[in-house]
Amino acid sequence: MRAVRFHDFGPPSVLRVEEAPDPEIEDDLLLVRVAATGLNPIDTDIRGGRVSGVLTGTPPRGLGVEVAGTVVRSGPLASRYREGDRVIGTMPTFKGEGYAEFVALPEEDAAPWPQNLSAPEAASMPLAALTALQALRAKGGLRARHRVLIHGASGGVGTMAVQIAALLGGEVVATASAEHLDLVRSLGAHEAVDYRAEDVTRRDGFDLVFDVAGTLPFGLARPMLRSAGAYITTQVSPGVVTRTVLQKAMPGPVMAYSQAAPDGPALEWLATLFASGAARVVMDRTFAMDEAPQAHAHLEGPHGPGKCALIVDESQ
Fold first, then answer.
1. Residues 80-95: tens digit of each pLDDT
2. How far apart are CA 39 and CA 214, in angstroms?
3. 124 — phi, psi (to 5°)?
4. In the chain, domain spans
5. What 3-state DSSP class applies to 165?
6. Would you say 34 and 313 are in contact if contact means Cβ atoms under 8 Å apart?
7. 148-171 pLDDT per residue, tens
8. What's the pLDDT tens digit per position in 93-148?
9. Cα separations (Å) of 103 from 16, 23, 88, 90?
């Protein structure tokens, strides 16, 4: 099969399309012919050597943790999906190799492909939506009528977080640049704030602050929160780790680091939201498989709102 791989850590130019062995299918794995794969910051971090090799392994290797595609074959313990079924799913964050014509997808981490979504949209939904849902509901304890700040609301996770928070009944305040305020309002934000024009840290009374952008540290967010509130970030740091370990003995708001974990039932729930039209995937750009270097350069530079994807098989 054809796959995008790299043989040394480095800039986007290290990515290249080459022949690779087809994945081996056993137990409850699904062999999926990939239609498209979502692009995420973790991909560029792994390629650039910015993630511990203990987690990622060493090159040569591929990239990609979310896909949309068609089941070709199932392992002997897989029973829910058959040949020809269209599915979406995630793979382990540091080990996924979805930039390829075929992937081995654990059946428990798959969900039906919402038929109203294009291949790039379907492939771009799982990781960002799971990140947002797990941060807001599992880590943040979001409930109806909670006042929620989504800081960095126009990116892949941010656009999902605004929609999910609103659908769960939250009162959503979302920050973005001026050119993206109308977008985040259209996604369900009750109020959209230009972070360049207003110091949002002067506000208070929030039940939950979700720092998607990674630019609102806990020290600044804490006065914004009610005493029983929660601060969730997508950025891990020594301070975050220390606080999360010690916080049971410390008064005040809860802090948590949230990184999406594969969760088939949650992904199925999300898929029904998108299938019903209650939520949508905001897309920035799509790229062909052999444009992976340009795609990574785009991700690492200024870019539009929403997600990017690699199109692997246009026939699906």
1. 999 999 999 999 888 8
2. 19
3. -90, -5
4. 2-125+282-311, 128-257
5. helix
6. yes
7. 999 999 999 999 999 999 999 999
8. 888 999 999 999 999 999 999 999 999 999 999 999 999 999 999 999 999 999 99
9. 18, 6, 11, 10
Nearest in space to 308 (alpha carbons), one of 90, 104, 64: 64
- Is the pLDDT assigned to residue 300 strictly greater than 90? yes
Give the residue, 219 or 11, on which the prediction is more confident: 11
* Kind plus residue range of the DSSP H or E element containing 35: strand 29-39
| 74 Cβ contact list (under 8 Å, min separation 6) | 25, 29, 30, 31, 81, 82, 83, 107
Question: Distance between CA 61 and CA 113 in Å, rounded?
Answer: 27
CATH of the domain spanning 2-125+282-311, picked from 3.20.20.370, 3.90.180.10, 3.30.210.10, 2.60.120.260: 3.90.180.10
Residue where the block lists tokens 């939506």: 129
Please give the structure tokens belonging to residue 155. 């990116």
Nearest residue to 96 (alpha-carbon basis) of 34, 27, 157, 160: 34
Residue type, 239: G
The model's pTM is: 0.93
At the topology level of CATH, where does 128-257 sit? Rossmann fold (3.40.50)
**What is the per-residue pLDDT for 235?**
73
Secondary structure (3-state) at 151:
strand
Whether the bond into 60 is cis, omega within 30 of 0: yes
Nearest-CA neighbor of 193 among 174, 210, 180? 174
Interaxial angle between packed helices 126-133 and 156-167, expressed in degrees from 0 to 180 and rounded to the nearest 10 = 50
pLDDT at residue number 238: 52
Nearest to 148 by CA among 182, 175, 176, 180: 175
Do 2-125+282-311 and 128-257 have matching folds?
A: no
